[in-house]
């Protein structure tokens, strides 16, 4: 395990099956509270994780949890989009851990992993309203390649696709 930026007690560890409920619940709760998303977003997160577990293509695809003193601070996943492109999925940082380097540590873990598995590009989906996440991605070499407004998860959002070379 590597030491995280949130402090010497913060560690990034591999995702384990016992993390599924937390990932689904926290995504659902935080996106409902912060973005006004309905339960269809939580269902999408559950579907993404079910697909990840069914495929079980580790080590090529993997996920990580950052935790400190037994509390989960955030998560991130890397899945194969195709043979050359990795997709960043389910990036989440708990509100109390934001601004402490948790997102940066998780993103670096994902990028380093994708690179080590031979991927040459990484893509991700986010939404325009997630300003801190968008700044994090831009700071780490991602560039906006597509933006479209649509109704998803019970509200209108601006979907964005970002990409970077590895």
Automatic annotation (TrEMBL):
Pfam families: Acetyltransf_1. Residues 10-164 form the N-acetyltransferase domain. Transmembrane segments: none annotated. The keyword Coiled coil does not apply. InterPro entries: Acyl_CoA_acyltransferase, GNAT_dom, NAT_camello-type. It comes from the Bacteria. SUPFAM superfamilies: Acyl-CoA N-acyltransferases (Nat) (SSF55729). This is N-acetyltransferase domain-containing protein. The lineage of its organism: Bacteria, Pseudomonadati, Pseudomonadota, Alphaproteobacteria, Rhodobacterales.
